[in-house]
Amino acid sequence: MLIKSSQMLEQDALSKEVTSRDIFQNRRALLKGLTGTGLSYGAVGSLGWMSALGSLSSNSIAQSTQSASTVGSKLAPLLGSHSSVSGAYVMEKPTSVGDASSYNNYYEFGTDKGDPVKNAHTLKTTPWSVQIEGLVKKPMKISLEDLLKLRPMEDRIYRMRCVEGWSMVIPWVGYSFSDLVSKVEPLGSAKFVEFVSLADPKTMPFVGSSILDWPYTEGLRLDEAMHPLTLLTFGMYGEVLPNQSGAPVRLVVPWKYGFKSAKSIVKIRFVEKMPSTAWNKAAANEYGFYSNVNPGVDHPRWSQATERRIGEDGLFAKKRKTLMFNGYESQVGQLYAGMDLQKNF
User: Fold this and answer.
1) Lowest model confidence (mean pLDDT) among 32-36, 114-118, 157-161, 266-270
2) Which of 29, 27, 65 is nearest to 48 (CA)?
3) From CA 97, how far away is CA 66, in angstroms rounded?
4) For FRET with 291, which of 59, 112, 307, 332 sits at 20 to 30 Å CA-CA?
5) SS3 of 69, please?
6) CA distances from 224 to 209, 260, 285, 339 (A)
7) How far apart are CA 101 and CA 95, in angstroms?
8) What is the pTM assigned to this prediction?
9) Distance, CA of 53 to CA of 64 (rounded, Å)
10) Strands, DSSP E only, in the chain?
């Protein structure tokens, strides 16, 4: 599929869902609108909306607390301010924190969706540091504490589309990965970024299994990594990341299938050539390096034209049509202008 420039402006479905700039100038107006759709403060959990807490009903707050309790004890708060990045918020009801925290792909802790929430309590997230190396002027080993202080946190609400055909809407907390990139100053020869996840068989019981080549690695082209929507992520739903969701630091790339967003990152390498990635090595015909969400390019074993939104299950629940680039075409489509997206899937 060849991307045409006119497609970047023809996003009728998306325009109905993305928050307008005017709405976000007034947080109270936004929160009031979202509350009307059933979205509670606990599902958003951002400092930017705390001034509107009084407009919420006590029943909404109680329901949110009950949802959080279904996946374990309450985690430390991590609050973000409003983001001015285009596409940072979608006007869709977020997936419940219970579903988002208990329906996970994290193969280091098991292959069933419920395995990570049962097994990831063994993950040790402190102390934690990330090694940054390769084609940069300032290689460094940076602690989690320094990463958290690098710049102010922002809240974002992104769609998340799994290659398996299901989707969620998740409120994240973090900042654009480009802020970290600017600190290490990539060399002109750096064209790609490789992300390496923790692979500790002592705390991650499925590391060493034959399903993947460990450690889990992922990669982006440098311009993809530098896009402001690419989020270095430390929290979700107003709290620090739970272990099963990639604690303590992960990437979120909302226009790509979920497996492209590396979890529990311990190393970042800037390289000249396209890096090998875990799922691409396991099945290159099924999981391409780019793996942009594309309803026109099917997985070899199923269609990608529609998706099942978690939390909308039911006898009469209809599948949603999948949007090109997961609905972020107007923000990221220019990155792939002229590319054959059937070949570069």
Assistant:
1) 32-36
2) 27
3) 10
4) 112
5) helix
6) 31, 12, 22, 14
7) 10
8) 0.82
9) 13
10) 129-134, 140-143, 154-161, 166-176, 192-197, 217-221, 231-236, 239-240, 250-252, 265-271, 306-309, 320-321
What's the angle, vertex CA 119, arms to CA 114 and CA 122, rounded to 5? Answer: 155
Across 277-301, average pLDDT: 97
Cα separation, 139 vs 32, in Å, equals: 46
The mean pLDDT value of the chain amounts to 84
Beta bridge partners of 169: 159
3-state percent helix, strand, coil for the chain, nearest multiple of 5:
30, 20, 45
Q: pLDDT tens digits, residue range 21-61? A: 333 333 333 433 343 333 433 333 333 333 322 332 333 32
Per DSSP, what are the bridge partners of residue 252? 231
What is the C-alpha separation between 84 and 273, in angstroms, rounded? Answer: 33
The pairs formed by 306-313 with CB atoms below 8 angstroms and a separation of 24 or more are 306/165, 307/161, 307/165, 307/166, 307/167, 308/165, 308/166, 308/167, 309/95, 309/166, 309/167, 309/168, 309/169, 310/95, 310/99, 310/100, 310/103, 310/166, 310/167, 310/168, 311/95, 311/96, 311/99, 311/168
Tens digits of residue pLDDT in 318-336: 899 999 999 999 999 999 9
Greater confidence, 222 or 45?
A: 222
Q: What single DSSP character describes residue 76? A: P
| CATH code of the region 5-16+77-336 | 3.90.420.10
Contacts 24+ apart (CB under 8 A), 142-149: 144/248, 144/249, 147/180, 147/232, 147/234, 147/249, 148/234
d(CA 104, CA 123): 15
How far apart (Å, rounded) are the C-alpha atoms in residues 41 and 315?
Answer: 29
User: Nearest-CA neighbor of 104 among 283, 267, 231, 243?
Assistant: 243
- Please state the separation of Cα 198 from the chain's center in Å: 18
**pLDDT tens per residue, range 142-176:** 999 999 999 999 999 999 999 999 999 999 999 99
